[in-house]
Design a protein that fits this description.
Number of helices: 2
Structural class: alpha+beta
Number of strands: 4
Distance between the termini: 6 Å
Shape: globular
Radius of gyration: 10 Å
Length: 62
Amino acid sequence: MKITVDRRRCEGHGLCEGVAPGLLSADEGHAELLVDGDVPTDQQGAAMSAVRVCPIAALRIS
C-alpha cells in the first residue's frame, strides 16, 4: 500500500497529521509524507484514516 499527497489540492488543515503522525507532517501549510515507498503494515490503518479525514481529498491510497 502506498499513500500519496496532491500538494496542489492540500490546504494544510493538518487533520491527516492528527490521525497518522508517523506517516504525515503538516509542513509549511501542506502535508508531507514521512515514509518513502510502501506504508508499513502497522501504519496502514492510520493511512486509511488519514485519507478519510482529509476534507478536500488530497490524499490517495494505491
